[in-house]
Amino acid sequence: MAPQNELRRNEVAVAWANHVDAGLAFIGVIRTPWATRAECPHHGDPEGPVCRIEVDAPWDAALDGIETIERLEVFYWLHEARRDLVRQSPGGNGLTKATFTIRSPVRPNPIGTSIVTLVAREGPVLHVRGLDCVDCTPLLDLKPDRSHFRADPSR
Ligand SMILES: C[S@@+](CC[C@H](N)C(=O)[O-])C[C@H]1O[C@@H](n2cnc3c(N)ncnc32)[C@H](O)[C@@H]1O
Question: How many helices (H) and strands (E) does the chain have?
Fold first, then answer.
C-alpha cells in the first residue's frame, strides 16, 4: 500500500510548533470496520455501518441518559495524520488547497468531528452510524447535536 504521509507534488510543509498549549486526554476508542485510511469513507454516512464508541472509565459515568439522544456530535483525534501542511493536495495531482479551506484530516490539530445516529447503548459502549475514521481512532468528546436542543429548548 502507498505511504500516506509523504509530501505530494506542490504541497507545502512548515516547521511545526515547538510547544504544546493544551493537553488532551483520550477518553475512549472508536471501533470501525476500516483498518486503513484508504478504506474509510470520505465523510460519515448516516446509512453507513454501525460502529462502536467505547468510553473508558471513569467517563462512562458521564453517559447517563445519553440513550435518549438520537443524534450526537463525536470528536476524535485523527492520530495518523501529519500536522505540518499549510497547502495540501488531497488528490495527489499537484493541485493544492489551503488547509483551512478543506476538511482533510491533515491539520495542525487533527480533530475530526461527525454527527452520528445513536442506534443502541450497552453500558460504556455506544453503537452509532455515521463515522468515517480508522479502527482504534482515539475518542476526544461527545456532545448532543444541536437539533436535540432545538426540539426542546428547556434542555
Ligand atoms: C475527510 S476526513 C473528515 C473527518 C471528519 N468527519 C471531519 O469532517 O472533521 C475523513 C478521512 O480522514 C482519514 N482518516 C480517518 N481516520 C483517520 C485517523 N485516525 N488518522 C488520520 N486520518 C484518518 C480517512 O482518509 C477519512 O476518509
Answer: 1, 9
pLDDT per residue of the chain (155 residues) written in tens, 0 to 9: 446 789 999 999 999 877 889 999 999 999 999 999 999 999 999 999 999 999 999 999 999 999 999 999 999 999 999 999 999 999 999 999 999 999 999 999 999 999 999 999 999 999 999 999 999 999 999 999 988 888 677 77
Taking the C-alpha atoms of residue 91 and residue 44, their distance in angstroms, rounded to an integer, is 19
Q: Which atom of ligand 1 is nearest to the CA of 44?
A: 6
Closest Cα to residue 123, out of 72, 59, 48? 59
Distance 153 CA to ligand 1 centre (A): 32
pTM: 0.94
Q: Counting atoms of ligand 1 from 1, which one is nearest the CA of 104?
A: 1
Q: Exposed/middle/buried for 142, CB within 10 Å: 0-12, 13-18, 19+?
A: buried
